[in-house]
Design brief:
This protein is mainly alpha-helical. 67% of the residues lie in helices and 0% in strands.
């Protein structure tokens, strides 16, 4: 009889992170599409009907922050972020694993700092209203905080994967 309440296996955790990463990518893509719509409306309203809405700037900044932060987190998950791989490719297998682990520790640290400080900035400005929209002034820090937390989570997962023994390595 199997226990359905057992903690997820590493493969189950990987599937869960994959689903989370796919959700993050879809939200970032929706934010980009929303950005196009809001900016299109801004241009139409300003130049065609000569009535520029005030809410488009804060909403644009929120959508841009969301797309950027979540897109960066998805880039960490898929390992498609900026990197210098020329020297790395000339290392031996052991040194490559050490460098890969160090890189993921640095990315996780940066993500944790973004998450922590982003959260503090978000909370600090909740009582201040943004000009032109019924949003808090600090709303742009919420996606930064969420994106930083996701960057840290995805980097720690990549660290765990980098430190796992390669197939057949334990047989020697």
């Amino acid at each position: 009889m199997s226990d359905t309440n057992a903690t997820p296996t590493p493969a189950g955790a990987q599937r869960l992170l994959e689903k989370l990463a796919n959700l993050v990518i879809h939200v970032a893509a929706a934010a980009l599409l929303g950005l196009v719509v809001v900016q299109g409306w801004q241009v139409f309203a300003r130049y065609v009907i000569n009535d520029s809405p005030s809410w488009t700037e804060p909403v644009t900044l929120l959508l841009l922050s969301t797309a950027m932060s979540l897109g960066a987190a998805a880039g960490v998950h898929t390992n498609r972020h900026f990197g210098f791989y020329l020297l790395h490719d000339h290392f031996g297998p052991w040194l490559k694993r050490v460098v890969d682990a160090l890189v993921q520790l640095v990315v996780a640290s940066i993500g944790a700092v973004l998450a922590g400080w982003g959260w503090l900035l978000w909370m600090d400005g909740l009582h201040i209203k943004a000009a032109g929209a019924a949003l808090p002034q600090s709303v742009n820090y919420l996606p930064l905080s969420i994106g930083g937390a996701l960057m840290a989570l995805f980097a720690l997962n990549r660290l765990w994967l980098a430190l796992r023994p390669a197939a057949g390595e334990g047989d020697r």
